[in-house]
Amino acid sequence: MSKLLPRTGGRRALPAAAAGVVALGLLLWWLLPLGEKPPSGTIVFSTGTSRGVYQEYGERLRTELAKDMPGLKVKLLTSAGSQENVQRVATGKADFTIAAADAVQAYQLDHGSGAGKLRGVARLYDDYVHLVVRSDSGIHSVRDLRHKRVAIGLPDSGVRLIADRVLRAAGIDPYRDITAAADGIDIGPGRLERGGIDAFFWSGGLPTKGLVALADKGAFRFIPIDADLVGKLHAQGEETRYYRATNLPESAYPAVQQGAEVPTIAVSNLLVTRADVEPRLTEWVTRTVIKSRDGIGAHVHSAQLVDLRTAIYTDPVPLQEGARRYYRSVKP
Questions:
Q1: According to the model, what pLDDT value does residue 269 have?
Q2: Best label site of 87, 122, 170, 172, fewest CB within 10 Å?
């Protein structure tokens, strides 16, 4: 029997109070494993660059994990992004991370160290590719980037991986046909505003805070990534199958988009761990991720898209045993 549910105070307890206890019990049964001592210890969570969605999501999730597992210390490590995140978890430098599905598969196809140990916890939300130029720029398509100064993301970032592929799909060699800069979302917007670069790529959840302030000034606009370019992207091979054609919704950056959607591509983000991470810990982490969706989503809009019905689809990695246990426990 659970120790979390108090006994009613005698035969005179009001029916309404008893019903309330039952309702509370049912809620706790769904959210927490009653009577089980929470996991404790220390875990490392690799996030992303400052001002990026990975970092903010990691900070918010750490707060939620502390509520459910007070004895668990979560150490956050900033990173260049998805590619570095995958490598860290696979090699034991981190225990959990967020990474885009294309970066996970790229690591597997490259036979990276520990690739076979990678496991999924949850599918979270989609990253959208942003190709950003100044509002007064003469650039109007990806092909116009030839001979321009273009920020293609930090080395080992998911942005770098996808920017390289998009440019090649447009017939542009990212290391010969442009002046490439390794700017992330932390400094890219400022450099664009000051004229230090002509364009930059970013791949992240909507909206990305690093762009919101600049958007409010109306200082930039988006370059569309049209469906024909997505088709050429897919033609590059198996490693591009995680990209899908979509649109930046008009509500993402309303001051810039002015009611118009922007054609682009998206790729799903996964919460990733390893097979050898304690399954009981992973089960608790999975539960917190799902039940904290609305709380985190109030601050990180992308988190509102975390959905129990789709969280189990962590392709290209199988579910970790602890995550599988959780999803089975709440299956209707």
A1: 96
A2: 170
Amino acid, single-letter form, for residue 187:
I
Written as one string, the DSSP assignment of 260-321 is: --EEEEEEEEEEEEETTS-HHHHHHHHHHHHHTHHHHHTTSGGGGG--TTTTT--TTSPBPH
What distance, in Å, lies between the first and last C-alpha atoms of the chain?
Answer: 23
CA–CA separation, 73 and 42 (whole Å): 5
* 178 closest CA partner among 161, 164, 193, 195: 164
Mean pLDDT in consecutive groups of 10 residues from the start of the chain, 332 residues:
36 46 48 72 96 93 97 97 97 98 96 98 96 96 98 95 96 97 93 96 92 87 93 89 95 93 97 98 98 91 88 98 97 73
Q: How do 149-151 and 220-222 pair as beta strands?
A: unpaired
Q: Quick one: pLDDT at residue 165?
A: 96
Q: Kindly provide the residue ranges of all beta strands, DSSP E only, lying in the chain, ordered along the sequence.
A: 41-46, 72-77, 96-100, 118-134, 149-151, 179-181, 199-204, 220-222, 244-248, 262-274
Token pair 């983000």 is found at 269
φ/ψ of 146, rounded to 5, equals -55, 130
Q: Are 157 and 188 in contact (CB under 8 A)?
A: no
Q: Which residue bears the tokens 């809620």?
A: 27
Give the pTM.
Answer: 0.86
